Amino acid sequence: MGGQINFKIMLADDDMDDRDLFTEAASSHNVTVEVASNGLELMDALHKTTELPCCVFLDLNMPEKGGKECLEEIRKDTRLSKLLVVIYSTSSSRKDIEDTFALGANLYVVKPSSFAKIRETIASILNINWKMYPPNADKDSFVFYDRTS
Q1: Which of 71, 69, 59 is nearest to 16 (CA)?
Q2: Domain limits of the chain?
Q3: Which own/partner pairs from 21-26 qualify as long-range (CB within 8 Å, at least 24 positions apart)?
Q4: pLDDT confidence of 134, banded at 50, 70, 90?
Q5: Hey, what CATH topology would domain 7-144 get?
Q6: pTM assigned to the model
Q7: In angstroms, rounded to a whole number, what is the distance separating the alpha carbons of residues 89 and 63?
Q8: If 25 and its partner were Cys, which of 30, 118, 139, 149 is the partner (CB 3.0–4.6 Å)?
Q9: Closest residue by Cα to residue 142 from 95, 101, 112, 110
């Protein structure tokens, strides 16, 4: 992803403030963000689009359909199964981390607490060599830690 200019990602998050902060932070990195306020909206958008996003940032705790359910559905769908999925959650629960690793997420990110940290985190994630982060690859590097804190 890192070398591309103006590519699309999707964010599914039920918190409007988190969606707005993420979208604003991502815009400074030439990224177009399509948002969904819950898992049903996300899956509907993914099934309807002709141009899949480069990456999906997925909150875990959403009404109607949660992040784990979406992740499981994405990995079972042949058209969507190769999507890069970053879990983007306030949860740092060991169970959530282990569950999403087992379900095939590429990376787990605990939401940063400030706008500056969100921008830095997005920049770092966009510059990752994703070949090193296939689903179920390396449990030790699955959780993304902000190295600037």
Answers
A1: 59
A2: 7-144
A3: 21/115, 21/118, 22/57, 22/88, 22/118, 22/122, 24/115, 25/115, 25/118, 25/119, 25/122, 26/122
A4: low
A5: Rossmann fold (3.40.50)
A6: 0.86
A7: 14
A8: 118
A9: 101
pLDDT at 2 over 50: no
Residue with tokens 């999403």: 100
- Residues 6 or more apart whose CB falls under 8 angstroms from that of 6 comprise 30, 31, 32
List the structure tokens of 109: 């990110």
Under a CB-based contact definition with an 8 Å cutoff, are residues 8 and 126 in contact?
no
pLDDT at 22: 94
Give the best-scoring range by mean pLDDT among 7-11, 28-32, 43-47, 130-134: 43-47
